[in-house]
């Protein structure tokens, strides 16, 4: 997305996904805390394509939707690495051709973490799109809200994307490292928020 900030919705690019091995490495990945302190997830721009009121669902894949299958799973944690149940995660993204659905809720949805702070989102790898005179790397948008705590708006990027190095918003701190699991790419990511 572009560059605007807002509130959580509580209620044709070249080389779009390609083959899984084209830009993505196999191997383990993950984020989050391995000590007794977790680093708060880096905030990022909301962009111009957020729409409030996405449906509650854990699967954004729909019949006829092209693209490389992707599973993103993880947890929502507080800065002491304690899991946060009942956290809201609102996802939105471009399709594999780099276009957002700005009329409806295709590739948009929200969910609530379980009692262990876990979430799981089934989707596709988003395509890249032209932003000004350069392409944005593939990315997923996410808002994370926990009770009366801070609202986190961020983007998740993909390891190996050729446009990561030229994107002004890219950060390795919010980079997914997908690996092939059966017929889909899978990536783990833990969000840390101030509750």
Could you characterize what this model shows?
This protein is mainly β. Helix content is 2%, strand content 30%. It has one helix spanning 20-23; strands at 69-77, 88-92, 108-112, 118-124, 129-131, 134-136, 139-145, 152-158, 175-176, 179-181, 184-188, 191-192. Strands 1, 4, 10, 11 and 12 form a five-stranded mixed beta sheet that branches. The chain has a five-stranded mixed beta sheet with strand order 3-2-7-8-9, with no helix packed on it. It has a two-stranded antiparallel ribbon with strand order 5-6. A hairpin with a 6-residue loop joins strand 7 and strand 8 (152-158). The protein is globular, with a radius of gyration of 15 Å.
Distance between the ends: 26 Å
Profile the largest sheet. Answer: 5 strands, mixed
Q: What's the pLDDT, averaged over the residues?
A: 85
* Structural class based on helices, strands and sheet pairing: mainly beta
Helix content: under 10%
Task: Count the DSSP helices.
Answer: 1
Rg (C-alpha, Å): 15 Å
Beta-strand fraction estimate: 25-35%
Shape: globular
Count of β-strands: 12
| Low-confidence runs | 1-34
Helix and strand element order: HEEEEEEEEEEEE
In summary, what is this structure?
By secondary structure, the chain is mainly beta. 2% of the residues lie in helices and 30% in strands. Strands 1, 4, 10, 11 and 12 form a 5-stranded mixed sheet that branches. A 5-stranded mixed sheet has the order 3-2-7-8-9, with no helix packed on it.
């Amino acid at each position: 997305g572009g560059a605007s900030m807002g509130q959580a919705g509580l209620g044709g690019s070249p080389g779009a996904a390609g083959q899984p091995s084209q830009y993505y490495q196999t191997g383990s990945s993950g984020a989050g805390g391995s000590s007794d302190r977790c680093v708060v997830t880096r905030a990022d721009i909301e962009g111009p394509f957020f729409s409030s009121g996405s449906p509650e669902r854990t699967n954004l894949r729909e019949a006829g939707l092209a693209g490389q299958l992707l599973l993103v799973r993880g947890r929502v944690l507080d800065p002491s690495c304690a899991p946060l149940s009942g956290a809201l995660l609102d996802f939105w993204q471009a399709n594999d051709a780099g276009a957002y659905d700005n009329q409806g809720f295709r590739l948009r949805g929200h969910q609530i973490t379980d009692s262990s702070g876990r979430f799981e989102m089934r989707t596709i790898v988003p395509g890249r799109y032209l932003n000004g005179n350069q392409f944005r790397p593939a990315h997923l948008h996410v808002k994370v809200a926990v009770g009366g705590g801070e609202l986190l708006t961020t983007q998740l990027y993909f390891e190996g994307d050729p446009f990561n190095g030229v994107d002004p918003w890219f950060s390795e701190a919010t980079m997914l490292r997908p690996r092939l699991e059966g017929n889909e790419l899978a990536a783990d990511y833990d969000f840390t928020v101030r509750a």
